[in-house]
Amino acid sequence: MVRTQIQLTEEQSEKLKAAAARRGISMAALIRQGIDALLSQHNEASLEEMYQRAAKAAGAYHSGTRDTASRHDDYLAEEFLR
Known about the structure:
Shape: elongated
Oligomer: single chain
Helix content: 55-70%
């Protein structure tokens, strides 16, 4: 293994410690698992695939309103409050 030093915020450190404790593993093991998950999900090929899928979806759906671009936050907030 290669020794690496990182800096975390207090909040990140506390959350990592708690998550590692819940799983019964060290913080280092949890960080390694997170890195493995990130790298396996987001390699260059999958990023390109995600961009292509997003480009295909853009404009494919119709909301029935004409102001979605300018009021998207309002519409999203309304959905969350339901």
